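The following record pairs a protein chain with its ligand, 2P0.
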Amino acid sequence: MRAAAIAQPNIALIKYWGKRDVVRNLPAVGSISITLRDLFTEMRVQLDGALTDDQLTVNGEPDTGLLPRLSVCLDRVLGQDRDPACIESHCNFPIAAGLASSASAFAALTIAAAAAADRSLETSELASLAGRASGSAARSLYGGFVELENRADDIAVRTLRAPAEWPLTVIIAITASEAKAVGSTEAMEMSRKTSPFYSSWIEQQPHDLATARDAIRQKDFAKLAAVSEHNCLKMHSIMWASRPPVVYWNSATMACLGTVRDLQAQGLGVFFTMDAGPQVKAVCLPDHAAQVSEALAGTVGVVDLMESGLGEAARRITTP
Ligand code: 2P0
């Protein structure tokens, strides 16, 4: 009754923003992401009938903030008559700061929980279950370039390209490490209910998805760069125009965008994307990664840098 799994976060290039069904947590739009290699969340789950309640530690410290969402996810995977669980989470990057920590956490938890109960589930079923907990988590069940499509009352997720087929590098510029003030679930609902741009976002998403799909098929970096930056800025403009406005950027976020523009002007293969937080992810050709990294490290307000290649799907691991 004990199992462990590891999952990497993923970064959306064509973003999921907005829900078509809040109760079932179904996204309003499809999305395309890249799964990372070097950031991870490891989850160990032990089901124990002797416990009275679920327990959680994050990096060795007891944690109650995240526990209710993890418990609901366990109920969905195992049924509400399950034994209580002792959950140990280890994560090598800042949590809840716009680095998709919930994606890797719920992807790993879903796999570990099913394995701890000896349930054999298809990856597609695990992805749907993880997606109920956190929309982006469904994508971390797959490696490389990943597309999440909407189906009638579910989602369908698949790998478009394996990481080794088009190895890109992601440099993450950390501009603030505290947890964000507004969670993405709340911000998405604010956008849906109040932003005048929300309906055009929904209308235009199929076009952006098709463009990115083509770019990935053709390994056309310039095309992927253009549509990814456009889609990211569109998502943030929806938030800026909602009431009240949601602004995740800080001055260092803007400075990083300037750095990426300068690098592009010098002919480097790099583009930016940002999620529900102030960090800037610079996606680049591996040969240009050192220059991108150096330029972002020297950008005012950048407090740390992380670097990652593209990685594989979430998976079960053996525990010592
Ligand atoms: C994404 N984000 O596609 C988008 C872009 C943030 C910006 O998915 O409400 O934690 O738990 O389903 O997956 C972050 O939101 O949201 C996210 P819920 P999630 O990666």
